[in-house]
């Protein structure tokens, strides 16, 4: 693509999950008009979660998709522009940063990477359709929905052991399904698991298939040494075999750890000055919406300061009221509208 056709931007945010959307809101409140490339399925991983009970401000459970829709609407009210495009390639070698999608090429003063991470799946039939309906990839998020019920956890590493222990606070019984004859996780976690009266470990065992159509009814499992098959009646299945950060397109452009997560400091800076990261793409430990949002706020504050300090930043984009949905401002008070007009440099 000809360099002259590149679209110039002050700030591009890669990813439209809670981290990216929060970053966009904070950047807009700082007077910028960030562009969010949120991919074909905006909302991030949380959009597939049926209910959240631990996000502040919502006394009643809220669906993950509904929460991200509210975040999106809030972002748009402050002039954030969202495109259903995915970054396919980047070039962070120069003073300005190049982002390429299938249909467009952009050049930006600063970039915030919020592409998230996706859980590794078992690859079973019905697994995707039962996600949020008995199949989960986050015990912290969903354990409370299985109070006094029997559940199973697949995995044998630290995450599986920790989640199994956590689930015993809610579930009446927890089965750990592990394909080997010993755990790969830390001994201290293994000892805690073995000490729990309501945990049963199924060694050398794998899940063959899932039972149930609209809701999980149970599992068909088999012993990979004896070949014995049996049914396991559980209401929930927690898959804890790891996550994969969405960083393939960043190879060779930014520093990653051995698992592919972006290395970022406590202020969300990466090893490339002017490129920041937030959310699960740089957090292999917590994977919580509220933490992703908090890191998005930090990334936006840092990116805003970086852009303001540059002497060769692109000119701020001026938005007119008819450049975005007028209906999105109807719920704002007059003082909020005045503040919005000021922050967007409206005429």
UniProtKB/TrEMBL annotation:
Family as reported in the entry's similarity comment: Belongs to the class-II pyridine nucleotide-disulfide oxidoreductase family.
The protein's enzyme class: oxidoreductase
SUPFAM superfamilies the UniProt entry points to: FAD/NAD(P)-binding domain
Record field: catalytic activity: [thioredoxin]-dithiol + NADP(+) = [thioredoxin]-disulfide + NADPH + H(+)
Region (Disordered) location: 327-347
GO biological process, one term: removal of superoxide radicals
Cofactor details (free text): Binds 1 FAD per subunit.
PROSITE patterns: PYRIDINE_REDOX_2
Key words of the record: Disulfide bond, FAD, Flavoprotein, NADP, Oxidoreductase, Redox-active center
Official protein name in the record: Thioredoxin reductase
Source species of the chain: Halanaerobium praevalens (strain ATCC 33744 / DSM 2228 / GSL)
Gene Ontology molecular-function annotations: thioredoxin-disulfide reductase (NADPH) activity
Cofactor dependence: FAD
GO cellular component entries: cytoplasm
Record note on quaternary structure: Homodimer.
Domain FAD/NAD(P)-binding: 10-296
């Amino acid at each position: 693509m000809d360099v002259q056709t590149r679209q110039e931007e002050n700030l591009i945010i890669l990813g439209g999950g809670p981290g990216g959307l929060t970053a966009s809101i904070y950047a807009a409140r700082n007077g910028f008009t960030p562009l969010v490339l949120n991919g074909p399925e905006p909302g991030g991983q949380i959009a597939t979660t049926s209910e959240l009970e631990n996000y502040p401000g919502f006394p009643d459970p809220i669906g993950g998709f509904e929460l991200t829709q509210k975040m999106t609407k809030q972002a748009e009210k402050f002039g954030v522009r969202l495109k259903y495009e995915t970054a396919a390639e980047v070039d962070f070698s120069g003073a300005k940063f190049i982002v390429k999608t299938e249909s467009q090429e952009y050049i930006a003063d600063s970039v915030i990477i919020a592409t998230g991470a996706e859980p590794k799946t078992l690859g079973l039939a019905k697994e995707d359709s039962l996600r949020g309906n008995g199949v989960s990839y986050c015990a912290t998020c969903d354990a409370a929905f299985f109070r006094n019920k029997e559940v199973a956890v697949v995995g044998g590493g630290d995450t599986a052991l920790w989640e199994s222990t956590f689930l015993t606070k809610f579930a009446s019984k927890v089965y750990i399904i592990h394909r080997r004859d010993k755990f790969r996780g830390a001994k201290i976690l293994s000892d805690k698991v073995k000490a729990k009266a309501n945990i049963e470990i199924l060694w050398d065992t794998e899940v063959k298939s899932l039972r149930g159509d609209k809701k999980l009814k149970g599992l068909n499992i088999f012993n990979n040494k004896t070949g014995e098959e049996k049914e396991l009646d559980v209401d929930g299945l927690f898959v804890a075999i790891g996550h994969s950060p969405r960083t393939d397109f960043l190879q060779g452009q930014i520093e990653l750890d051995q698992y592919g997560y972006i290395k970022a400091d406590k202020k969300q800076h990466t090893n490339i000055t002017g490129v920041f990261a937030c959310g699960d793409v740089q957090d292999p430990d917590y994977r919580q919406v509220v933490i992703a949002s908090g890191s998005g706020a930090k990334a936006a504050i840092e990116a805003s300061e970086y852009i303001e300090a540059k002497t060769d930043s692109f000119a701020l984009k001026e938005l007119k009221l008819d450049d975005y949905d007028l209906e999105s401002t109807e719920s704002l008070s007059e003082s909020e509208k005045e503040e919005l007009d000021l922050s967007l440099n409206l005429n």
